[in-house]
Amino acid sequence: MRLTKFSDLALRAVMRLAVVRDGESLTTREVAEAMDVPYAHMAKAVARLQHLGVLEARRGRGGGLELTGFGRGASIGWLLRELEGEEEVVTCEGDTPCPLRGACRLRGALRAAQQAFYSSLDPLTVSDVVAAPTGPVLLTLTGRGA
Known about the structure:
Elements: H1 5-17, H2 28-35, H3 39-51, E1 55-58, E2 64-67, H4 69-72, H5 76-84, H6 106-121, H7 126-129, H8 134-140
Antiparallel strand pairs: 1-2
Helix pairs in contact: 1-2, 1-3, 1-5, 2-3, 5-6
């Protein structure tokens, strides 16, 4: 199974925001630069994370992004399910439907494997994945040209 780039980007943003120092506030642009990704891509991820209640965005002077308490304790499995959606690993329908779709046992096995993947991440929280040694490394990420 492979995560979408969008989910990967959103997870990295959450991880960076989980380790902000006291009094520090990061903008979407600063997080994008730290993760070395285009601003537009990060802005979409931030909007989705805000919609999920994982982070808050404040505009204007003194504004920035802040991980919510809910976001800090969010399960990685839950977050990935929300970001990835309900799409199955394989597509059996479509323009050229698979001729085995009526009698295939693989589709069910892949669906079970996908659920096992998410379930294995359910016990992990955002706080868990930013514990040392990851957190200190995240704090060193400052963006392009640094």
